[in-house]
Amino acid sequence: MTAPTVATQTEEPEVILRVRNLKKYFPIRRGVFQRHVGDVKAVDDVSFDVYKGETLGLVGESGCGKTTTGRTIIRLYDPTAGSVYFQGRDMAELKGKELRAMRRKMQMIFQDPYASLNPRMSVLGIVGEPLEIHHIANRSERKERVAELLKLVGLNPAFMNRYPHEFSGGQRQRIGLARALALNPDLIICDEPISALDVSIQAQVVNLLEELQEQLGLTYIFIAHDLSMVRHISKRVAVMYLGKIVELTDRDTLYTNPLHPYTQALLSAVPVPDPFIEETRKRIILKGDLPSPANPPSGCNFHTRCPVFQKGLCDVQDPEFIEVEPGHFCACHLVKPQ
Amino acid sequence: MAKNNTQQEELLGRKPPGWLERQLGTEAYRALRGMATNPISVIGTLLLAIFLFVAIAAPVLAPPAHTNDPYQIPRDGYGQVPKPPGTEWRTRQPPLPFWWKAVTGKDNWIHIMGTASGQWDIYYGVVWGTRTALRVGLVITIITAIVGIIVGSVSAYYGGTVDIVLMRIVEVFIAFPFLPAAMTLSAVLTPIIGRGLFPPMIAIIVFGWTGVARLLRSDVLSVREREYVLAAKVIGVSDARIMFRHILPNAIFPTLVWASMRIGSLVITFAALSFLGIGAEVGYADWGQLLSFARDWMTQLGEYWYIVTFPGTILVLFVLAWNLVGDALRDVLDPRLQGSR
Fold first, then answer.
1. Which terminus of chain A is more exposed, N or C, with fewer CB under 10 A?
2. Which carries the bigger pLDDT value, residue B338 or residue B83?
3. Which domain holds residue B136?
């Protein structure tokens, strides 16, 4: 598979993160001797770039490898293969101290605001921990900085001695955000940060993320399964299916001119808040279930559910992830470059 | 700022923190308040306090006959037939406690709880046995807990081969039935290190640490995968700090609760060993020993009820006290349960 080359434009935005052929397989072991009998191919050969200051949306259904991709990029998991270039260094090869130093520039927000804060630490302890372990601030400076961070995410600094269980889901997510911001990162991986929140709170958190992006020049990788929310926040969107990226382009192109049959099916499932349009909306219903990533189909991953599947081609050959239009990548045999 | 804080607290409908809360910190204060307001824990703590008092005040409550060996139960002759409570001392009377005359107005010491077969004084055995029970329970529990915590957390945190090897070792120990195994080891150790408290204690520790190791391992395994541990990794927190700051504090409470309940049941196990004659030497103040004196009179308990009732009741109350405290600890130490009371 060729790496997608960046669109040849005159004004080249700076690439902050370059993921190449990233793979993460989880071994399946059986029996008394823990024999290696197979792999769950959670992330299977994924390549993309993230530009400075943008938000890259990463969407796909449950179990398609979105979260694993995010966690492998930030090295919570060691990648099976591939490289992750971040500010000129390959994250996949860093170890120990260097890795720790790199992580200051790359942070993560987690999905479940109830599980992502240590229940036995106060807010001050949680948000101040990154400052403490990187020796950025002494005790009193830390308190000041935490107060600043809490204000930044819209929380009252007077609450810093409280414990996580005293806060609501939205407030907790803000605390998690404050913790991620403590080290002044350049890139934040948002792993479904709003999926566990009420709709009204979702909007608040998303708006906060956008404000902070503008204010601090942050770059986001925004992992989600809510297509309309991704459309709202992302500049470009990557669609994942069974461990692979099937389509990647800027937001507007994706939503107006989806090329991959899977993207088309996904978008057809988004309800339209207009009863007249909604009535004429044609849904593409995919047949069957998501195949097991431990035993992916031959050829194109999607061929077992594809409405335009061609026998002899799709089930034999793996489609390449190619740039069909400038800045528009797609992995489908039936989509030809222009 | 302080005033501002107070206003914030009022907005939230809470009282500003009092003096004690500021001294102890929010969490410790909460735990303490929980323990003080929960009737179960109050009863348990009260019972424990009584036992602690008896243990500390043993020389005053029951002045020893031999000051260099206070744990030796004094005996009043060598007769086989137990004597009922209230019988007067006839031979080798230990010193009278100073409060005895003031309280009862009598000049001679009596067997407050009667004597057991062999004329061992039950009252002395119960009072000094409290010390033995506390010592045995605490020492065994602390050592088993430390061994178990080390093995369990190492096993869970490193996983892989380390985990497999350690857990197979644990399984080997679990494969032996606990009481017979402890009895056998204790019997084997006795000729080597001499009769006394140590052989049964070592035996109970050797076969007792596996429970903690497994309990803690399972809790560490589940906590290790929580998102706040991942978040700590992302921040760059070192392995040791993740273990001690993020994983253990959230995984240790079942183990602590287990340990506090364990103290009671360990004393029963120890008493069982003593009852079977493997344990403290004859005449050593120990509740199990007292019960073993009753062995020959089991069929006539209607008449000689006191040889079982006093040590038995004390043993039950001791176990109950630790269980109540353990229960209350479990409720109080979980911050998520706070506010539910």
1. C
2. B83
3. 127-337
> Residue A250 is encoded by which pair of tokens?
């800027």
Q: CA dist B195 to A276, B277, B292, Å?
A: 92, 11, 17
Instruction: Give yes or no for residue B14 having a pLDDT over 70.
Output: no
B226 to A115: CB separation less than 8 angstroms, yes or no: yes
B254 token code pair: 């079942």
Using an 8 Å CB-CB cutoff, list chain A residues near B14.
Answer: none
pLDDT value at A26 more than 80:
yes
Is B18 a member of any domain? Answer: no
CB contact under 8 A, A116 and B26: no
Q: B107 at the A interface (CB within 8 A)?
A: no
The reply to whether B180 falls in a domain is yes
* Closest residue to A112, CB basis, from B8, B227, B234: B227
Nearest to B236 among A119, A134, A176 (CB): A134
Contact across the interface for A158 and B338, Cβ inside 8 Å: no
What is the spatial distance between Cα A229 and Cα A192, in angstroms, rounded to a whole number? 11
Contact between A100 and B236 using a beta-carbon 8 Å cutoff = yes
Q: Which of A68, A76, A120 to mutate to test the interface with B (most CBs of B within 10 A)?
A: A120
Which of B8, B233, B236 is the closest to A104 by Cβ? B236
- Average pLDDT across chain A, whole number: 87
The total number of structural domains that make up chain B: 1
Task: At A83, give phi and psi (nearest 5°).
Answer: -140, 155
Q: B residues 26-55 near A, CB within 8 Å? A: 26-27
Distance separating alpha carbons of residues A70 and A77, to the nearest angstrom: 9
pLDDT band at A219 (very low <50, low <70, confident <90, very high): very high
Whether pLDDT at A203 is above 80: yes
Q: Do A134 and B5 touch (CB under 8 A)?
A: no
List the single range of A114-128, A220-234, B227-241, B291-305 with lowest mean pLDDT.
B291-305
Q: Where are the alpha helices (DSSP H) in A66-197?
A: 66-73, 96-103, 123-133, 139-152, 169-181
Residue B172 lies in a domain: yes
Phi-psi region of A49 (alpha: psi -120 to 50; beta: other; left: phi over 0): beta
Decide if B291 is inside a domain.
yes
The reply to whether residue B241 touches residue A133, judged by beta carbons under 8 angstroms, is: yes
User: Higher confidence at residue A168 or residue A97?
Assistant: A168
Say if residues B82 and B116 touch (Cβ distance below 8 Å). Answer: yes
Order the strands of the A55-59 sheet from edge to edge: A106-109, A187-191, A219-224, A55-59, A236-241, A244-250, A328-330, A322-325
Instruction: Quote the pLDDT of residue A117.
Output: 92
- pLDDT in the model for residue A307: 85
- Under an 8 A CB cutoff, do A103 and B234 touch? yes
Give me chain B's average pLDDT, please: 83
Most confident of A148-152, A192-196, B266-270: A148-152
**What φ, ψ does residue B114 adopt, rounded to 5°?**
85, -175
Mean pLDDT of B164-185: 91
- Residue B6 sits at the chain A interface (C-beta within 8 Å): no
Given a cut of 60, whether residue B336 has pLDDT beyond it is no
Q: By CA distance, what is B241's nearest residue in A?
A: A133
The CATH number given to whatever domain includes residue B332 is 1.10.3720.10
Chain A residue with minimal CA distance to B225?
A: A115
pLDDT at B339: 45
pTM over 0.80: no
- Min mean pLDDT across A293-297, A321-325, B304-308, B330-334 is at B330-334
CB contact under 8 A, B231 and A74: no
